[in-house]
């Protein structure tokens, strides 16, 4: 709580006491002006003097309990902030009351000055602190909503030590240590699966309710929940270094950052404070020239200062950013900085890196075509045995497919690698050959059906791997870039939002054009042949006329060159990955909702600034020119101050940054 409740706001108990003292003070100060029943003695003899002394006795404790308003105003004399108008107004009102009290002691009429001065001197600091406390409390509640995500992290872990399962505190788990997770239990650390297969709910981290299959070699995140079978994992990040803990910490830092919108709000706050001081001085001079007398002129100046509450703007930006970051995190999107959020809000062009955003980044098997004697599943096992141990990307695709389908295989014996052609080996005692079409034709005669299947796959952009078994055609496997399932729908949604979507590809134009067509982009939206070293300059050139968002792999250094780099998934940790925005699910489906939410969050801040300007202009004019009696005007001004401060902060922390429903929620 101390992080958000500022030093000028008293403790809740002190604030409550000051508000309780304010009630009788306002009753006494408004008694004459509003016709409230007061003892007849209050109007006779020394009654006004006693009444003024009682008002002073009620005012001084309020000023002491809310002294942060005055000390804050002193600190802000050179750089105006939210305390300056309130502090100066309360000080001027107290001075007005003391002058009236002195006049009464000297026998001159000064009861009006006492009413105006002491009433406003108590109302301004008490109601100002109440409004500020409410604002800070809203900000604190927004922060707590974000912090509650950490409740998904378990307090206990089961570590494998000396061949035994030992229950320890999750904070005692160290990187590199093996830990065990039973079904129904949460992961205590980020790590890699070593043994076991299971479905895992990553809703606490990515916001997705769809369980994810985990197998040896797959990453897991702290806070995720194991569902089906026991898993043995190796810890990589523990404690505050886990992805979930880092995401919450980065969101808090973003709310405290000084983005363009926050800077605009701060400048507006200072301008409004200076404007209030100038209008107050002008009102005092004008009313004095009009012959209203010192008490009335001072009352108008005090009221001008009382209605000025630019402090609401100081919290509008962090409250809106906190609410926006929290809503984005529920969608599986992490805004690491306020700058990234605001750049995403103004971007008009979306640059999609083909390998890092649209496709999975690695070739995959798109189809396995077997023969009558060699069914597709059997062929996949034979092919995986032949390709086992190879680091070639096509071979890796075959091995991943076999692993995903649960196909068992045995590495080929007597393996021969023929560069540029294929591989030969013995699988289950039979000679197996695999490679390009020309090589396989030297090993067997391809059937008409296999040739047609190969032509169909090649027309779709796949690279072909033919196989032969004991000099007979065994089948063909097509390998190609695998487009993420959500890419086409995400592109259509982005275009419907009025954004231009472009595809950056490093390969040949024909292959890139095929991928572009699959996601709904035409040739004019494609830039092929982009080399990694040329990408930063290209991104800067496209981003110059209007903001641009680059979406790519979390390890792509070019993300830092865009107005807002969007990383697909977590490569290392959220803090270390490139890009100011992270799609935690590793899926484009969250991007449209993230951009829309960024626009709404920044729009909330801008509306707060605009509304503040309108409110202050009207309030300052009315406070300076309104002919109401001084005590009534002072009370209305102080009440308007607290009401507007609470309303402005509440708008920023609530509906304007409400979550946007996205795919997969």
Q: TL;DR?
A:
The protein is an alpha+beta fold. A hairpin with a 2-residue loop joins strand 14 and strand 15. The radius of gyration is 35 Å and the shape is elongated.
Number of strands: 22
Give the strand order of the largest sheet, numbering strands 1, 2, ... along the chain: 10-22-21-20-11-18-19
**Fraction in beta strands:** 15-25%
Radius of gyration: 35 Å
The average pLDDT value, as a whole number, equals 79
Biggest sheet features: 7 strands, mixed
Instruction: Enumerate the spans where pLDDT stays under 50 for 5 or more consecutive residues.
Output: 1-5, 655-665
- Measured between the Cα atoms of the first and last residue, the distance is 31 Å
Helical content class: 40-55%
